[in-house]
Amino acid sequence: MAALAGETRTILYGFWLSSCTWRVRAALTVKQIPFEEKSIDIVKKRSQLTDEYRAVNPSQKVPALVIGKIPFKTDNIKYR
Ligand SMILES: N[C@@H](CCC(=O)N[C@@H](CS)C(=O)NCC(=O)O)C(=O)O
Description:
The chain has a single domain, classed as Glutaredoxin (3-Layer(aba) Sandwich), CATH 3.40.30. It is an alpha+beta fold. 19% of the residues are buried. Strand 3 (64-67) and strand 4 form a beta hairpin. It is 22% helix and 20% strand. A four-stranded mixed beta sheet has the order 2-1-3-4, with helices on one face. The protein is built from two helices and four strands; from the N terminus they run E-H-E-H-E-E. The N and C termini lie far apart (33 Å). The protein is globular. It has helices spanning 19-30, 51-56; strands spanning 10-14, 36-39, 64-67, 70-72. Bound molecules: glutathione (GSH). InterPro entries: Glutathione_S-Trfase_N, Thioredoxin-like_sf. It comes from Pararge aegeria aegeria. GO terms for molecular function: glutathione transferase activity; maleylacetoacetate isomerase activity. Residues 8-80 form the GST N-terminal domain. This is Jg8074 protein.
């Protein structure tokens, strides 16, 4: 856990063409949660298939949401 100490950033791994990413981006924005976004090109570069991204999200899909280095499942995120 020491490695997690001090890391509080919220990072959204996504892609501009991904509706799944837009859903999570909208939820974070509506809830006024500050976040950084890292682009994973799922179309041309197929970056979701890299080992580096697999370490972030084993399902190799976008989006992936990491809060303070802890990954969160995004499938059920709703903004209401
Ligand atoms: N259940 C996931 C589905 C994620 C998903 O299907 N993402 C698509 C983009 S919207 C994706 O990463 N496609 C790339 C691929 O399948 O290789 C969610 O709702 O977040």
